Amino acid sequence: MDSTDSALLRNEVGIVTGAGRGVGRAIAETLAKAGAAVAVAARTPVEIEEVASAIERAGGRALAVRADVTDADSVSRLVEEVGHRLGEPTLLVNNAGVWLQVGPLAEADPETWWRDVEVSLKGAFLCSRAVLPGMLARGAGRIVNVSSYAAIKPRPYSSAYGCAKAALLRLTDSLAAETADQGVTTFAISPGFVRTALVADAASSEAGRTWLPELAKRTDALEPEFAGRLVVTIASGRLDALSGRFLHVLDDVGELLARSEEILEHDLYTLRLRK
User: Is the residue at 272 inside a domain?
Assistant: First the structure.
């Protein structure tokens, strides 16, 4: 492990939800490489244990914690265990999400449709609610919500996923405004199109082949490590002035910082009605 990288976040304790695979795993591993102690949280024990073991083999600090982000008691236990074993969380990455409903809204199963929203939105709410008291008491903390560009344009045949990701943007800027003077910053990020198991499952399903045939044909996939690097930059504090904003992994951080006054003055990188 690179000694410079491993020193950057050496005083940080992060929780990453949905960290057993894909984007969540990449974020957890990149944070650990930068020196943070990382709680790897998800519902599947074998996946999170493998990720935590891989981090430790690479010289990092990690803890695998099974958690259901839609269950308040489970989330409370997660935060309590992290506090006891790694230290009080200074960073939360709300990455957990599902993409189950594919097809016309008129034919959607209500429970399946709502599950897409529940995991992303309720999960982010419960996890944020659980870590915020400690962050506010210390006057410091950062929360990152993993959203998607699906939040900012129509999503036919994936309305639940689009609604879930759009809701995360409003949660992000609302919380950022609430805590602006209390030392806690909140960001939303888009990892871009990443060919994760979640995407592969949606694309290969019967509904996916019928209603989203273009999904399997896309050639613009990004590596999940892009998301990890952006989260490390956020965790370092470099972007604190832009709390509440929605950032893409391909955004130029230097340019964002150079334009920070303009971004704030004109309320850019946010979900707004422009007239």
Answer: no
Place of tokens 């003077």: 181
Question: Is there a domain that residue 214 lies in?
Answer: yes
Mean pLDDT of 188-195: 96
pLDDT for position 56: 98
b/e map 151-174, b = 16+ CB within 10 Å: beeebebbbbbbbbbbbbbebbbe
The DSSP secondary-structure symbol of 157 reads T
- Give the number of domains in the chain: 1
| Pair of tokens at residue 99 | 């993409």
1 pLDDT more than 50? no
In a domain, 21, yes or no: yes
Number of other residues whose CB lies within 10 A of the CB of residue 217: 7
Tens digits of per-residue pLDDT, 193-245?
999 999 999 999 999 999 999 999 999 999 999 999 999 999 999 999 999 99
What are the C-alpha distances in Å from 213 to residues 143, 154, 207, 218, 251? 35, 17, 9, 10, 28
Number of residues that this document lists for the chain: 275
Q: Tell me how many degrees the CA angle 74-21-246 measures, rounded to the nearest 5.
A: 80
- Output the six-digit token pair for 114: 């709502």
What residue numbers bound the domain in which 175 lies? Answer: 3-265
Percent of the chain with pLDDT over 70: 98
Measured from the Cβ of residue 88, the count of other Cβ atoms closer than 10 Å reads: 15
pLDDT given at position 274? 86
Task: Report, as residue numbers or ranges, the catalytic residues.
Answer: 161, 165
Q: What angle do CA 273, 168, 111 make, to 5 degrees?
A: 115
The DSSP secondary-structure symbol of 39 reads E
pTM: 0.96
